[in-house]
Amino acid sequence: MMIYDHILVRFGELALKGKNRSVFEKHLLENIKMSVKSIPNLKLKRTYGRIVIELNGQNHEPVVEKLKHIFGIHSFSLAFKVENDLQAMQKGALTVLQDRANVRTFKITAKRAYKPFPLDTMQLNREIGGYVLTNTEGITVDVHNPDVNIHVEVRETATYITSASYDGPGGLPVGTSGKVLLLLSGGIDSPVAGYLTLKRGAKIEAVHFHSPPYTNERAKQKVIDLAQSLTKYGNSVVLHLVPFTEVQKHIHSEIPSNLQMTVMRRMMLRISERIANERGILALGTGESLGQVASQTLHSMNTINEVTNLPIIRPLVTMDKLEVIDIAQKIGTFETSILPFEDCCTIFLPPDSKTRPKREQTNKYEQYIEIDKYVDDAVARTEKLLLTNTKRINNEVEDLF
After folding, report:
1. % of the chain exceeding 70 in pLDDT
2. What's the rounded Cα separation, in Å, for the pair 239 and 123?
């Protein structure tokens, strides 16, 4: 098998960013560097419209696996680098073709990104294709449906020859759209919401509400594992673990049962907003889907939203459950999400939650609970974990930011 010496990374949506394109490309370059930093000897550089990774003898497979999860990449190809010389291009194209098994037809697709090169694309197609035909047997040209399409990309300092591409995940480079605090439960939906938020370029931190001793350590570990799964796409995630038992017990004793779920959600938003403000985060994110449960009707969302001025990002709001499950399976969070450990939303669950709670009625009953006291206490006792795509760092993360 041929040893490829480079990888060409192509952008998608970044090409539409006009004068800001360079900023997005630099951000993507840094994200790729961060993702592959454990692989020695790689060299990366940004050229117009591409990021070029020089493998320097390293196996390409672990690099390919990393690139498949980096948002902002449209596609990428293993590449064979030659000089900007016609004979070198011809021999390189022949080498790439001979590396492929069971090829009966081929096509040459030249791209002349470096315009001063003396031959135009049509001339390159003819000269390189003719050389390949002359030096092979039983192989013909098929410009419509070839077994292999050999791309010859002439750039300013070198020519790169490729014959197959991998799809990237698309989207925008993580970190180019600010930061969102994701409300992460142990269910199927919120990890998918986190993945889709990352895809739109937002970096995420996550907040989870747990209620020991009613929820156990295995339920807590499940959420840590889900947050860890998201680091594959975002490099790192700070997870805020909020003790919620006292808040829930207080609500249970002071609020009518049919409004307890609404008030509990409002307390979650108040605590999340406090954490977001302390971390300089400008939006909250949830895995809510319209009409899925009592707290996700428009009436409920309207009443719950009243307690925060931060925008709430809901990437799943129009999806049905099967669509969400499909994404969860693709990104590898589904099997963890369905582990049967209870979270704080399933304990103290009243049987008669309102689907049309009103702001006025909710505000009336909230007069009887000590909101500031319980928010202050929950935030003060919040545990923080820094999770990276390689390891989990201990609780003390403040010095790292």
Report:
1. 94
2. 57
